[in-house]
Specification:
By secondary structure, this protein is α/β, with parallel strands linked by helices. It has 9 helices and 5 strands; from the N terminus they run βαβαααβαβαααβα. Residues 9, 31-32, 35, 52-53, 56-59, 64, 85-86, 88, 92, 135, 144 line the site of adenosine monophosphate.
Length: 187
């Protein structure tokens, strides 16, 4: 089972991905986490993406596709993957389908966490106060939300046409969202 957790930034994808990893042994592939790790390590890639990430814009497709390609090669025996924050453009989704096909795999389910924008703003303000992530400041967050609407939302019809898209109420408490996801993976 390979699934994509889909939704705007701060919808709760990371939290739910970690739960699924703990419960089912799936491997979480978060391009945001990978890019933050690259920055922390001071690598050439990290230096290259820092300003783009802090502005809230998307880094180039080539960069994130290469990260996922490496991660898939390194985790050949994983019982399943949870893609979190990837794909974010149609080009990334097409590349993902092709990369998985090379390994004899496919995306089985796309679970969209629905959260209204006011709730997202409240969550992000809280996270900014607690963690101080540069791209959680209100200005950068607006750029991230706009990027989601313009570049990532077109993936909804992409996966709907494949019959893989399911929507969950992402405003419920964490346990209820987890239950909703579990149910969406059964059918
Ligand atoms: P996230 O933690 O998933 O919200 O990602 C943080 C930032 O990393 C984003 O605002 C982008 O700048 C960059 N990023 C993460 N994943 C992607 C992706 N799939 N495509 C382009 N940029 C990404």
């Amino acid at each position: 089972m390979n699934l994509i957790l889909f939704g705007p930034p701060a919808a709760g994808k990371g939290t739910q991905a970690k739960r699924l990893t703990a419960e089912r042994g799936f491997v979480q592939l978060s391009t945001g986490d990978m890019l933050r790790a690259a920055r922390k390590s001071g690598s050439e890639l990290g230096v290259k993406v820092a300003a783009i990430m802090d502005s809230g814009s998307l880094v180039s497709d080539d960069i994130v596709i290469a990260l996922i390609e490496d991660a898939l090669a390194q985790n050949k025996d994983a019982p399943g993957f949870i893609f979190d924050g990837f794909p974010r453009t149609v080009a990334q989704a097409e590349a993902l389908d092709a990369m998985l096909a090379k390994h004899g795999k496919q995306i089985d389910r796309v679970v969209k966490l629905e959260v209204d924008s006011q709730k997202l703003m409240d969550r992000i303000a809280k996270r900014f106060a607690e963690e101080g992530r540069a791209d959680d400041n209100p200005e950068a967050y607006k750029v991230r939300l706009d990027a989601y609407l313009a570049q990532t939302a077109p993936l909804v019809p992409y996966y709907e046409q494949q019959g893989k898209m399911r929507s969950i109420d992402g405003m419920a408490d964490i346990d209820s969202v987890s239950k909703g996801i579990a149910k969406s993976l059964e059918v």
